[in-house]
Design brief:
Blueprint: H1 7-34, H2 68-74, H3 78-90, H4 94-105, H5 110-123, E1 126-131, H6 135-146, E2 152-157, H7 167-180, E3 187-190, E4 193-196, H8 205-210, H9 214-220
Length: 224
Amino acid sequence: PLHPPSPMASRRSYIHACIFSGFVMVLMASLLRMGAGGKLRGIRSPVVQKFGRVSARQVKFPGQSRSLSTRASENGDIILTGLKLANPVTGLIKPVMAPISKIQAGGFDAAAIQAKIDADITTNPVVIYGYSLSPFCTKAVDILKSTGASPKVVDLGAEWLPGLISSDGAAIRAHLGDTTGRTSMPHIFIGGKSIGGLVDGTPGLLSLVEDGTLDAKLREANAI
């Protein structure tokens, strides 16, 4: 018969997964620094630039004919281009993130967490669950605000790493993984329905921007 792993074995697996995830994150950071053909070189203060904050003029919604990557480059938003290029790299750690999220969350009241999520998404037209240090989350907030929407941002912690995510944040992350299959952040809800993250999802925020349907979806949810 199969026996559950010992606490020590689980701890080792958790440490190994964190090390692997950290390695992939370093690769992602390197890719972000390169940006589109190394265009990020020469930017002296990415902190001051707030991850290349998008203005309302930089994001065009209806009647778009060019890819967002092309428009982002033309508008000087190299960070957004870098995030799109980095997304496949972050996908490498997705298979290990679900078990990590459950280990981090430990035992939690799933019904109570679901009640919190329901309260958020039923009383706010746009909700973003995310991390304060994540450029993906920052960019998602920027894009939604540039439309005139005022998303409710639920900060789960600085990042998913141990010591940086709150206990409630870890529980919400694990529960979203159980109910939607996504533990990556940001996790965006519009009109009470999950659309996934910034780059991918169902269909993902950038997909709505590119096909020109984001404005309509936000109006339908009474967000703008």
